[in-house]
Task: structure prediction
Amino acid sequence: MASIKDVAAEAGVSVATVSRVLNDHPSVSDDARTRVLAAVQTLGYRPNAVARSLRTDQTRTLGLVISDVMNPYFTELARSVEEAARALGYSVIIGNADERPDLQDHHVRTLLDRRIDGLLVSPTDGGSPLMLEAARAGTPMVFVDRWIPGVDVPVVRADGQAAIRDLVAHLCRLGHRRVAIIAGPAATTTGSERVRAFREALAEHGVPLPDAYTGQGDFQAESGRRVTEGFLDLPEPPEAVFAADNLMALGALDAIRARGLRVPQDIALAAFDDIPWFVHTDPPVTAIAQPTGELGRAAVRALVDRIEGRHPRSVTLPARLVVRRSCGEGRDEHQTPVQRSTS
Amino acid sequence: MASIKDVAAEAGVSVATVSRVLNDHPSVSDDARTRVLAAVQTLGYRPNAVARSLRTDQTRTLGLVISDVMNPYFTELARSVEEAARALGYSVIIGNADERPDLQDHHVRTLLDRRIDGLLVSPTDGGSPLMLEAARAGTPMVFVDRWIPGVDVPVVRADGQAAIRDLVAHLCRLGHRRVAIIAGPAATTTGSERVRAFREALAEHGVPLPDAYTGQGDFQAESGRRVTEGFLDLPEPPEAVFAADNLMALGALDAIRARGLRVPQDIALAAFDDIPWFVHTDPPVTAIAQPTGELGRAAVRALVDRIEGRHPRSVTLPARLVVRRSCGEGRDEHQTPVQRSTS
DNA sequence: CCTCCTCGTGGAATCGATTACACGGTTGCG
DNA sequence: CGCAACCGTGTAATCGATTCCACGAGGAGG
Result:
């Protein structure tokens, strides 16, 4: 592959001049410029980004470590992050942690080794030494969706508290008194906060949330299935189940079907994170929708601010309840076109 | 950030010795080794992958350019590719083309600039000059799922022909004679091959596939919706619709619901690409499942073979029909656990 | 006419690693 | 005892860019 030296030789100038042309530095004669451009053309020269990064100490690359690519919520987040980054001239390298702290560390490590300019993380756990150290060392970093408490890193997230309160009101209005939750890992903020918000909202309606109705999941479908089976085995099973993410809701749906039970007649179901498929499940699932695209854009904006030396503030956007039929009442969305973020 | 020089100074040795320790080269004294390791520890040194890549001319990175991340099929493919690559010591950089040739080119370009060791592509179109040139220039490359005819690059894909024949048999057995297809872009191999296989299979049953029943989609949900509306507006609408990918099936479902029609009573639906959600849609959707995980692994294996100088052959794996209720008959999968690839 | 800028250009240092080569000191074998 | 092989180590070249500095030419101004 042709290097800058080859171009310089072909054009009959020095490498310095070639570099200046390529970075459109003002002081280059028109003559030299055209000769260089011609040489670039004939050699099919493409600048080596690796060499450039070494010299300039910047890669124009962002790292994004997410907890689970197979979760449509994170997929959409990744998509909007890449889009926003591209608009600002950055590339994105995605690392999929699969909800495993060791994998998360692996990705953070390789991204750091590659000298990415900044890191966007949705932490799987309470924070490994590696990540804590990176944050302390001043690596530009922004948490998105989930965060690690006590670390001085901006957080971009959606606040589900109000929406969860709406959901609880909806459940109570429909007469459900025995409601359960499938929680995410306690080590994640979204894992614990959603339970807390749910419990508090229930308390406002005088409804308790016993331990037996608080299942421990890990944000993966299989755990939703397992926890739901536990609920159904209870002498007094819950009348409604709230899954803290969409995959666990899918697992719950599986478990309920496996018993031959019907939603919502036999048991109500709701989920955190709305996805296009929830419109078409049987029945359509009531869910809490995050402004995913806006979240991704805000996260990139914050991270690039940090990279460029500014000090962005944390951003919290509201989530909202989307009522469908899985809790009993609720309209159907026959007319709604499939949701897609803007291109 | 500490460099190899700092480590050398701290350990009281030369940079060469530090490098030898880090790459565990045999001829280093135990004494030097321990001193270097200690220095690495105290300085928190991490080798700069950028510098290393520049020198060694390899990045241990694979590029993966897929047509659409929001499509669960490609998400799963990406996941299995990353997993297989990681096992071989490679990282993966994913580029999402969003079914747009210009975006695809953008990603190929940046990946090439980064000097990735090899490229895995599922082309959105018939092949841009850039990609053709890269292939000709000898960039290690493998096509996955889709390919560009006439280019000497190994292809890893699933053959849906047999499964499509099974599907057609299934449709005919249920008495459907007016069947339509929502095709993908003709410029993609999967776009045209699936139509061809479908048409041929229908011919075997003496069923024609008129132009009016051949809708042109682009593998995105919205196009499935639009095409399906066209079908429903026909004086004689089809009795069954086959969508060439899962997103267009989702769009079709939308359009059908919007008219207040029921699947499968009013119209049958089937899709190419099976995804976990199809089990839970209303009704569960009959689909053709590709061995996605195996596809990803085979693709990585082939690409790494090419990188290491060997000459891998193309791989074709069989797809299979999964019958559910959306075409009329078909069992339900209440007992089936949620599908996930192995971790 | 001389000095001082400005402008276009090239030489060379630099980024952080790897690695060929040289060198001094042991060790082994004849 | 002497020569060769070997071992551990350091010096320096190298990868492909960017960029500081110097230099020569030419124009402006005194």
